[in-house]
């Protein structure tokens, strides 16, 4: 809730809540939290802390844009507001809804090797079950049908079919409105990827290489912000299950054609298996 609110909903110092001018739409386990945190290093960015799930959850969407606005952080007029909800990318009804809010919005999509994303997705659900002390099958059981072929109905596989989901977005947005962040590169060397995002969002170049340092213990880059060091939560950067190389090969083969279709769609290739 805002303090010192004037009749327009803006505070006396000009700060107010704004609808997002950019949204990180996914993909789940692509590195969406890392991207949001890194982008937040920029002084002209105000980020919603939690996943908002406005466009994909009926109980939120039915409450209208006023509800959405109230989920946004307080920001200054010159700041860009951003939220991230990774489920948007794979939810077919979302693109039209985002378009009807703002057809000129800039979209950020962070993707990584689709096979790796499947393992990460599985690991996430496994941990969720462990937390609730509920059993969860080994990954082989979810990936494979009884005839030894991959089970296309396994949700984690479907979410990695990037071309299928992107097509829904391209019905409503031109490609130039969608910036694809290379999630594998963001892990290995985040700064150049973040610079590209700054340019796409027409932000002044204010994030520096010195904002990132490699943390050997975590095995990932962490952030340095005004002398304050912080890494992402321990749930980010977890070990994935060891998978039989033959099964891994099956996964790579499974995604070969879909990846080609995706590359054609975006006019760009990625260094995926
Ligand atoms: P893993 O935990 O499977 O390695 P999301 O935030 O969309 O759920 O994505 C989580 C993924 O972000 C992690 O998946 C991790 O690989 C990736 N990631 C990218 N940069 C990271 C960083 N600097 N620290 C931790 N995780 C990072």
TrEMBL record:
Q: Name one GO biological process term.
A: glycosaminoglycan biosynthetic process
Domain of life according to the entry: Eukaryota
Catalytic activity line of the entry:
alpha-D-glucosaminyl-[heparan sulfate](n) + 3'-phosphoadenylyl sulfate = 3-sulfo-alpha-D-glucosaminyl-[heparan sulfate](n) + adenosine 3',5'-bisphosphate + H(+)
Q: Which UniProt keywords apply?
A: Disulfide bond, Glycoprotein, Golgi apparatus, Signal, Transferase
Q: What SUPFAM superfamilies does UniProt report for this protein, alphabetically? A: P-loop containing nucleoside triphosphate hydrolases
Binding residues for 3'-phosphoadenylyl sulfate, per the UniProt record? 29-33, 112, 120, 221, 236-240
Primary subcellular site in the record, as a coarse category: Golgi
Q: What is the lineage of its organism?
A: Eukaryota, Metazoa, Chordata, Craniata, Vertebrata
**Family assignment?**
Belongs to the sulfotransferase 1 family.
Its job: Sulfotransferase that utilizes 3'-phospho-5'-adenylyl sulfate (PAPS) to catalyze the transfer of a sulfo group to position 3 of glucosamine residues in heparan. Catalyzes the rate limiting step in the biosynthesis of heparan sulfate (HSact). This modification is a crucial step in the biosynthesis of anticoagulant heparan sulfate as it completes the structure of the antithrombin pentasaccharide binding site.
Which EC number(s) does UniProt give? Answer: 2.8.2.-
Q: Which GO terms describe its molecular function?
A: [heparan sulfate]-glucosamine 3-sulfotransferase activity
What protein is this chain from?
Sulfotransferase
Kindly list the places in or outside the cell where this protein is found, as annotated in its UniProt entry. Answer: Golgi apparatus lumen
Q: Which residues form the Sulfotransferase domain?
A: 20-260
Cellular component aspect of the GO annotation:
Golgi lumen
Question: Which cysteine-cysteine pairs are annotated as disulfide bonds in the entry?
Answer: 222-231
- Catalytic center at which residues? 29 (for sulfotransferase activity)
């Amino acid at each position: 809730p805002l303090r010192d609110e004037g009749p327009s909903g803006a505070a006396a110092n000009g700060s107010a809540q704004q609808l997002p001018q950019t949204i990180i739409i996914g993909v789940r386990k692509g590195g969406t939290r890392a991207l949001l945190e890194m982008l937040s290093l920029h002084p002209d960015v105000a980020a919603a802390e939690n996943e908002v799930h406005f466009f994909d959850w009926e109980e939120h969407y039915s409450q209208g844009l006023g509800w959405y606005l109230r989920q946004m952080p307080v920001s200054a007029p010159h700041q860009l507001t951003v939220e991230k909800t990774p489920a948007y990318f794979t939810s077919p009804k979302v693109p039209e809804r985002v378009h009807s809010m703002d057809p000129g919005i800039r979209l950020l999509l962070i993707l990584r090797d689709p096979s790796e994303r499947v393992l990460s997705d599985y690991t996430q659900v496994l941990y969720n079950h462990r937390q609730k002390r509920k059993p969860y099958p080994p990954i082989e059981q979810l990936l494979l049908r009884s005839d030894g072929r991959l089970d296309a109905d396994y949700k984690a596989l479907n979410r990695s079919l990037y071309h299928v989901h992107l097509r829904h977005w391209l019905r409503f947005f031109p490609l130039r409105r969608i910036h694809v962040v290379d999630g594998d590169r963001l892990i290995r060397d985040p700064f150049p990827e973040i610079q590209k995002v700054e340019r796409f969002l027409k932000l002044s170049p204010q994030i520096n290489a010195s904002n990132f340092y490699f943390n050997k213990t975590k095995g990932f880059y962490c952030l340095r912000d005004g002398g304050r060091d912080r890494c992402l939560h321990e749930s980010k950067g977890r070990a994935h299950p060891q998978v039989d190389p033959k099964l891994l090969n099956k996964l790579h083969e499974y995604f070969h054609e879909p990846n080609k279709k995706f590359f054609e769609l975006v006019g760009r290739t990625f260094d995926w298996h």
